[in-house]
Amino acid sequence: MDDARSQLVDNIRIAISEKNSEHDVLNEAVELIDQFSDDFDWTGFYLMRDKILEVGPYVGPETPHTRIELDKGICGAAASLKKAIIVDNVQADSRFLACSLTTKSEIVVPLMDGERVIGEIDIDSNQPSFFKEVDRKMLEAIADIIVHRLRELT
């Protein structure tokens, strides 16, 4: 990871260590993640609730997809596969659930508590092929930190 990405990971670790609720942890993290790039056009969390992904804190335009079934969308696919998904061209991916006509690429990284998906980080960009492996690694590190903090709160 480059210095900027490593710094974001560290900043999130420090910032959420002081938060004492799931909402506050996720809200703080999403704000910091979104600030990382002007080309993050929707940044948010989906949380697993009774085998449905429900939208959590996010930054960006209102989404019509507040609940996503595990067999729907790129978010559902990432949760079902229990692995990160990067889509360079969402229009070419039949799984894509359009929130915005301007979205061109997407990355989804599950929040894994052992083998259990408890949620995911979802970021859309209006730039095609925007997300790279280094972004996946950064978001996976952030996801691990968030899961660890959420575990401490329970």
Word description of this protein:
With 154 residues, the chain is an alpha+beta fold. It is 38% helix and 27% strand. The protein has a single domain (3-153), classed as GAF domain (Beta-Lactamase). It has helices at 3-16, 22-35, 73-81, 133-153; strands at 42-49, 52-59, 67-69, 85-87, 105-113, 116-125. It has a 6-stranded antiparallel sheet, sandwiched between helices. Helix 1 runs parallel beside helix 4 (133-153) and helix 2 (22-35) packs antiparallel against helix 4. The longest helix has 21 residues, at 133-153. It is globular, with a radius of gyration of 14 Å.
SSE map:
Blueprint: H1 3-16, H2 22-35, E1 42-49, E2 52-59, E3 67-69, H3 73-81, E4 85-87, E5 105-113, E6 116-125, H4 133-153
Antiparallel strand pairs: 1-2, 1-6, 2-3, 4-5, 5-6
What is the number of helices? 4
User: What is the element string, with H for helices and E for strands?
Assistant: HHEEEHEEEH
Biggest sheet, spatial arrangement of strands: 3-2-1-6-5-4
User: What best-fitting shape do the alpha-carbon axes yield?
Assistant: globular
CATH class: Alpha Beta
The percent range for helix content is: 25-40%
Instruction: Tally the structural domains.
Output: 1
**Structural class of the helices, strands and pairings?**
alpha+beta
Mean pLDDT: 95
**Biggest sheet record:** 6 strands, antiparallel
Radius of gyration: 14 Å
